Amino acid sequence: LDQLDNRELLEAKAWVYHKLGYYDSALVDFQRVCQLYPDYLSYFNVAYTFDLMDKPKESIENYNKSLELKPDYYITYNNRGYEFYRLKNF
């Protein structure tokens, strides 16, 4: 893999964008990580970014993918529940 496909570099760059509030740019890198290294935390990061972009439906979809890979990650349940709340889906 070249440098553009290095997980640590992609995640570090995504978190810099995240901290700066450039969520679209962060999302591109987080989604690339999901393509290359699909695991629960990768999908969690995508979902969290969608949350900050005010896209609860997309956030829920990615929290669901995260739970498929790690069904005992309680933080994902908490965050997904918040997204359902935002959609008034009680």
Q: What would your notes on this structure say?
A:
This protein has 90 residues and is mainly alpha-helical. Helices cover 76% and strands 0% of the residues. The protein has five helices and no strands. The protein has helices at 7-20, 23-36, 40-52, 56-69, 74-86. The termini are far apart. The model has no long low-confidence stretch (mean pLDDT 95).
What is the gyration radius calculated from CA atoms?
Answer: 13 Å
Mean pLDDT, all residues? 95
Content of β-strand? under 5%
Q: Which percent range fits the helix content?
A: over 70%
N- and C-termini, Cα separation? 44 Å
Instruction: Please report the total strand number as a whole number.
Output: 0
Biggest sheet overview = none
Q: What class would the helix/strand composition place it in?
A: mainly alpha
- Give the SSE string: HHHHH
Q: Low-confidence parts, pLDDT < 50 over ≥5 residues? A: none
Number of helical elements: 5
Shape: globular
Features:
globular, 76% helix
Question: What are the SSEs and their pairings?
Answer:
Layout: H1 7-20, H2 23-36, H3 40-52, H4 56-69, H5 74-86
Helix pairs in contact: 1-2, 2-3, 3-4, 4-5
In short, what is this structure?
The protein has five helices and no strands. With 90 residues, it is an all-alpha fold.
